[in-house]
Design goal:
It contains three helices and no strands. It is mostly helical.
């Protein structure tokens, strides 16, 4: 005697609302790898800015370059973090989305803080050209 089999009440593996998630190990690896690469890029960018004002000659006064170009490069890293978060969201990689969103927020704070500091320095140099950290016209 064959008993009738009831159809499944709910099957989330098929249909238009099917949601796939990335493998958790790959998700964590991608998120950590991207954060590591972005932090290295930021360290290199701001290390180059630091080196622009570094000189071992005690008889020479050196001022660092303007931050604007370096902030633009850091903003580019932030844009890449947002793009990576969007791609990860499409792939269902939740850990990568969260890590990239946090990196984008951190880079946004760094860029806006640096922009505020540089605009303050620019205003100071415009009002008082002989202030500390301002380049003179004969450099």
């Amino acid at each position: 005697m064959d008993l009738p089999a009831a159809p499944p009440a709910f099957d989330a593996t098929t249909g238009p609302r099917q949601r796939g998630r990335a493998d958790l190990g790959a998700d964590i690896g991608a998120g950590c790898g991207l954060v590591f690469l972005e932090l290295i890029a930021l360290v290199v960018i701001f290390w180059l800015w630091f080196l622009s004002g570094f000189n071992l000659d005690p008889g020479r006064t050196v001022t660092a370059d303007s931050l604007w170009g370096y902030l633009a490069a850091a903003g580019g890293v932030g844009v890449l973090a947002v793009v990576a978060a969007a791609i990860a969201a499409r792939a269902g990689a939740v850990v990568t989305v969260v890590s990239q969103a946090l990196m984008a927020a951190l880079i946004c704070v760094i860029v806006f803080g640096g922009a505020a500091a540089q605009s303050h320095q620019d205003r100071l140099c415009r009002d008082t050209p002989s202030a500390t950290g301002c380049k003179s016209g004969d450099d």
